[in-house]
Design a protein that fits this description.
Elements lengths: L1 H18 L10 H8 L3 H10 L9 E6 L5 E7 L4 E6 L13 H8 L13 E9 L2 E11 L4 E6 L4 E7 L8 E5 L5 E5 L16 H4 L2 E9 L4 E12 L3 E7 L7 E7 L15 H4 L5 E8 H9 L5 E3 L2 E4 L1 H6 L3 E7 L2 E6 L5 E6 L4 E6 H9 L5 E2 L5 E2 L2 H4 E6 L4 E6 L5 E6 L4 E6 L4 E7 L4 E7 L8 E8 L15 E7 L6 E8 L7 E5 L13 E2 L4 E2 L10 E6 L5 E10 L2 E3 L2 E5 L3 E8 L8 E5 L4 E5 L4 E7 L4 E6 L12 E7 L18 H26 L7 H30 L2 H31 L7
Parallel strand pairs: 11-16, 36-39, 38-44
Antiparallel strand pairs: 1-2, 1-32, 2-3, 4-5, 5-6, 6-7, 8-9, 9-10, 10-11, 12-13, 13-14, 14-17, 15-16, 18-19, 19-20, 20-23, 21-22, 24-25, 25-26, 26-27, 28-29, 29-30, 30-31, 33-34, 35-36, 36-37, 39-42, 40-41, 40-43, 43-44
Helix pairs in contact: 11-13, 12-13
This protein binds sulfanyl-(tricuprio-$l^{4}-sulfanyl)copper and dinuclear copper ion (CUA).
């Protein structure tokens, strides 16, 4: 691949040079370029703050919800370069997510009422935390349309688990974590009856319910444990988003809600629509829950009942045990955010130009004194706003979400209607700065902004509309993520990034050096289960097994391997009607040497990263010839990485079926090839000498390359032996074939050796003493 890349790069360069006479690329002074491209000094400054030189890395990695794509989008900050899409609720062919057997099992965990749901409306990603700091281990994200939460392992950026909420019919209010990821908070939005039974809308107030689930997360196992999770039954209000308490509010959770009018629409029946009925009251309710005490009571068997393998805490029990309270909130609120210290809770009302700041100490005081202004229709105590409000600040029209700065008391609130970001001081209650954005911002995000120690530095505005910001691409516009410098007193807009995959509601960013993803799996690894695959196959142990049951149903298991540049086996023979399971183990240890596997007409595609074992199961229901091949351009002879699956008709009688080579070779051909190989070995030896006489062990990249090269050379030895054996027998075709294979391994060794040598030369390696 590298050689080809080089050739391609050179041709591209030639193209550029040929056309560059009138373009900006030929200019060499900054002034000329600015003039040619119409750039101002401010543009250049913004560019300098985001531009990441070739080969450079970003300081932060952002994990954005992929909205309707059901995926997660990973990009760097400040460069805003997209690095990865992670398949979560939706099949993603490149990663073979939803195509290999292993990931199909993960997606199957998200089935609802027996149906495959291959779409997700992802909204809120959240990092796992330790003591309120992002620990870089896991990412959680919800699916609003189908009440599900997924767990993504940040060791390999793969989705490992999906859980379906046992009570809700939607899940807007996930995923928000408690400070040690003890629990993942997940609120319903659309009230519905618990369970699958039909309940008429006339029983809305009595039998429709909202709720808040605390999913138990086991950090060691990296798994959500539904059996240890519990759900608060709540009134049929539209529970919106949540945030967990921290610091002095540790152990508590806050969930805002709207439509506490409990209005049911019916515009077609002449009733006012939802939007009118759900915005009639001046205030809605924030739900305050004591998860720590609830967990203890559930564990002690004092409250809760087991339903669908999980625990439900009926409202009556929550009220009786002081676990659930309500506090009025500004009209039609959206989002709730606890400050890093944990003593203030901030809520904005979409239809109120004010953002309200609550004081946790005052909330505690009211609860202790049992000082309530009344109860809601379900008996939940309501704490009076005047008893707990710290400030109410006019921040702009249509305020939504709030994020925190590294400076104490400083926050940023997204202003939807006014299309701007307001920077303000929630301690003093005064506005500090306002910046227009483009257009209609939803969420916003600061670096590590949900942790107990936000970094400030940058803010990303997740704008709902892009309108005229990018080259037109038809009626469906990309989303616009705008990068804003917040390091100074005044916010400065730096960059517009189009995101064309769905509407990412929220994004979280983590310091890049907190992530330590691997580059290879342990050999023969089932990555989705994170254990050794039962289909692991070693080099030389490839085999095909066919077993039939009493009814005559037959299954063929192919235990295969991949390594540059061949798939083993290269011929698979099965009989029409067989169920075929191809299990491929990637024998590579080298970084970035992924192989793929696709086959004609079977909807099969695998992504087999170094060390991984992946499987594809299908029924070979039609006799015929099915070529298969590697789908990643892994090496110079990648195109030769191929094979045939032959599906014989039932009752097929072999006529000997001897394979005849298209070309016949002689001893002279063989001798010539061996001579080439010996010369190639000379090149390898000189490269090896260069490497080993330098301090290559100080360069981890080179050490890895050397390991890989040694590996390949080991295979070369084996091929060399086979060639010699066939030569002694005078089978020149096989001798020639294995001599060629010996050379192929040499070429791969030389390729890696040269890469290692270049790296040493470019990075100032010195001669070892
Ligand atoms: Cu779009 Cu968080 Cu679902 Cu606000 S939510 S914008
Ligand atoms: Cu392996 Cu292409």
């Amino acid at each position: 691949m590298k050689t080809l890349q080089r050739i391609i790069a050179i041709s591209l360069l030639a193209l550029f040079c040929g056309f560059s006479a009138s373009s900006v690329f030929a200019q060499d002074s900054l002034k000329d370029v600015m003039k040619a491209r119409g750039l101002t000094e401010k543009d250049i400054l913004a560019a300098a703050k985001t531009y990441t030189p070739t080969g450079g890395r970003d300081e932060y990695l952002a994990f954005a919800s992929g909205g309707q794509s059901g995926q997660v989008i990973v990009y760097g900050v400040p460069s805003m370069r997209i690095l990865k899409y992670i398949g979560v609720f939706t099949p993603e062919p490149w990663q073979a997510y939803g195509f290999d057997d292993e990931s199909k099992e993960v997606l199957a965990q998200g089935r609802i009422m027996g149906k495959d749901i291959t779409f997700g409306d992802t909204h809120h990603p959240a990092f796992s935390e330790t003591d309120g700091e992002y620990n870089g281990k896991y990412l959680f994200i919800n699916d609003k349309a189908n009440p599900r939460i997924a767990v993504i392992d940040l060791h390999d950026f793969e989705t490992k688990q999906i859980v379906v909420n046992p009570f809700f019919r939607s899940s807007h209010g996930g995923a928000f974590v408690t400070p040690n990821s003890e629990y993942i908070m997940d609120g319903a939005q659309y009230a519905a009856p618990y369970g699958d039974d039909f309940v008429p809308l006339s029983k809305f107030n009595e039998e429709y319910r909202g709720g808040l689930t605390y999913w138990k997360f086991n950090m060691e196992k990296g798994k959500i444990e539904p059996e240890n999770s519990f759900t608060f039954e709540m009134g049929p209000y539209s529970q919106d988003l949540s945030d967990a308490g921290k610091g002095i509010s540790y152990g508590w959770g806050f969930t805002n809600s709207f439509c506490t009018e409990r209005y049911i629409g019916g515009i077609e029946r002449g009733r006012p629509p939802f939007e009118a009925g759900c915005s009639s009251k001046d205030t809605d309710f924030m739900h305050v829950t004591n998860w720590k005490k609830a967990a203890e009571l559930v564990a002690a068997g004092k409250i809760g009942k087991k339903v669908n393998g999980s625990t439900l805490i009926p409202m009556k029990e929550a009220i009786a045990n002081d676990l659930l309270f309500l506090i009025p909130e500004p009209k039609s609120p959206h989002g709730v955010d606890v400050n890093p210290k944990g003593d203030k809770i901030i809520v904005s009302g979409k239809l109120d130009s004010h953002t309200w700041v609550y004081d946790f100490a005052k909330i505690q005081k009211a609860i202790k004194a049992k000082k309530y202004e009344g109860k809601d229709p379900y008996g939940v105590p309501i704490i009076a706003i005047k008893d707990v409000l710290h400030k109410s600040v006019a921040v702009g029209l249509g305020p939504l979400h709030t994020q925190f700065d590294s400076k104490e008391c400083v926050v940023y609130t997204s202003i939807y209607v006014d299309s701007m970001i307001t920077k303000w001081d929630y301690c003093e209650g005064k506005v500090l700065d306002q910046l227009p954005i483009h257009y209609n911002v939803g969420h916003l995000m600061t670096m590590e902004g949900d942790s107990v120690s936000p970094d400030g530095k940058y803010l990303v505005a997740l704008n709902k509309l892009a309108i005229d910001r990018f080259n037109p691409v038809g009626p469906l516009h990309p989303q616009n993520h705008q990068l804003i410098d917040i390091s100074g007193d005044k916010m400065q807009l730096l960059y517009d990034m189009p995101l064309p995959l769905g509407e990412p509601h929220y994004v979280v960013a983590i310091k890049a050096d907190k992530l330590k993803p691997g580059v290879r799996y342990k050999s023969g690894w089932n990555s989705r289960k994170d254990e050794k695959s039962v289909w692991k196959t070693r080099a030389g142990r490839e085999k095909t097994e066919r077993t039939c049951d009493a009814a005559g149903k037959c299954t063929v298991h192919v235990y295969g391997t991949t390594i540059r540049s061949h798939l083993t086996p290269e011929i698979i023979e099965v009989t029409e009607g067989d169920t075929v399971s191809v299990h491929l183990t990637n024998l590579e240890r080298a970084q970035d040497e992924t192989h793929g596997f696709a086959m004609y007409g079977q909807n099969i595609q695998l992504s087999i990263e170094p060390g991984k074992t992946a499987s594809a199961t299908f029924v070979a229901d039609k006799a015929g010839v099915y070529p298969y091949y590697c789908t990643e351009f892994c090496s110079a002879l990648h195109l030769e990485m191929q094979g045939y699956m032959l599906v014989r008709p039932k009752g097929y009688k072999s006529e000997g079926d001897v394979i005849v080579d298209g070309t016949t070779y002689t001893k002279a051909d063989y001798d010539k090839q061996v001579k080439t190989n010996i010369e190639t070995q000379g090149v390898i030896d000189s490269v090896v000498k260069f490497i080993t006489t330098h301090n290559y062990k100080d360069f981890p990249i080179v050490v890895a390359l050397v390991e890989d090269a040694t590996d390949q050379l080991g295979f070369a030895e084996d091929a060399k032996k086979k060639a010699a054996d066939y030569a002694t027998k005078g089978d020149w075709n096989k001798a020639m074939g294995w001599a060629n294979q010996w050379w192929q391994y040499q070429v791969k060794t030389a390729d890696m050796g040269l890469r290692a040598k270049t790296h040493l030369e470019e990075n100032g390696a010195v001669k070892a003493k």
